[in-house]
Model the fold of this input.
Amino acid sequence: MNANDPQFWMMISSIIIAVCFIVMAIALVAIAVIVRRVVATVKRVEERIDPLITKVDAISAQGREMSVHFTEVSANLSVATRHLAESTELIKEEVKELKLLVGETALTARDKVELVSRTIDRTHMQVTDTTEFVQKKIIIPAREIAALMAGVKRGLEVLFAPAPKQLDRAYIEDELFIG
Done:
């Protein structure tokens, strides 16, 4: 390929655009993998916390039952139970906030993936339109002009070529044979 040839530059620009598409696709895959990992992590945390909440609720209930039977210990147990209940509520609130945060993050990530997808589609259409425009408006007319110029050049060479030399002697047939 020649660097002066327009097709050479079209090929270079097409390669650059293809590399850009590949990089954008890799970025989309990376975002999807990260979002999937965050969702999985939140689910694991939730699964680990649910048994703890159940156990804390059970302990709280047992403490309340024991406070009825033991009046002297009831003051201490009620304080402990209250702290456990508050801790349980705090944990529940934190889990709810974490669920909301993960939901918002997933929605944002989905929106961004859709935005990048639309951008890729729009860029692809623009590149296709530009390639077609350059093909129709530059390359095809340039080929035609080059063909015309080659024809004009050849015609001028024929017109302005020096006259052929006159032969001073007659050649025998064997001398004319090139072999």
In short: The mean pLDDT is 84. Residues 71-159 form the longest helix (89 residues). The helical segments are 6-69, 71-159, 173-176.
